[in-house]
Amino acid sequence: MAVLTYIVTVFLSLQLVNSILKMWKFGGAAGWDAPIQGISSGLDSFSFISYDRSPYSFEVWQFFLIILGLQLLACIAAGILVSLLSFLTKNTMLAFFISGVVMAVPVLLQQLGVTRGILGYVANFSYTELMQVSSMFTYFRAYNVFGIPLLYPTLIFTVFAIVSGVLVFLIYQLFRKQQVSS
């Protein structure tokens, strides 16, 4: 619960400050009802990602709320992983380095261009990709799961919801076995 409280507090504080600064910089909330396809990259834009060819029919305000919610879920999933690693290693620095490796290896694979086969799945379904929510909505990408096509954002969040649920159960079991009874 401490991890969740910390993550939610820091996340919401940073997003509140970021939102206020963006609204101040761009002169208010005008344009929030425009489609996301109007957000394009460029020197005059605040986004480095272009949504010109996005298949999703969100308005900017809907997209903003979806991104906030999914980024919060991604941060919670990463926090759960770090909590498990911290418990297993009992050493703060070792947990820090292992967490860094878990986050960095998929990025390294993508930078090296190793995105075929199983390594491609490791790169596409990683905590780092999970946290880059806004890039998931730039173009259409689907995976065939048991003969059913699933959109990439839906699939990655489903996979990490299951993984996080298993990790929470594992953390609970490990803490339960460690408790001292009188």
TrEMBL record:
Alphabetically ordered keywords of this record: Membrane, Transmembrane, Transmembrane helix
User: What domain of life is recorded for the organism?
Assistant: Bacteria
Transmembrane residues, as ranges? 60-85, 92-109, 150-172
Protein name stated in the entry: Uncharacterized protein
Species in which this protein is naturally found: Anaerobacillus alkalidiazotrophicus
Q: Highest lineage ranks of the organism?
A: Bacteria, Bacillati, Bacillota, Bacilli, Bacillales
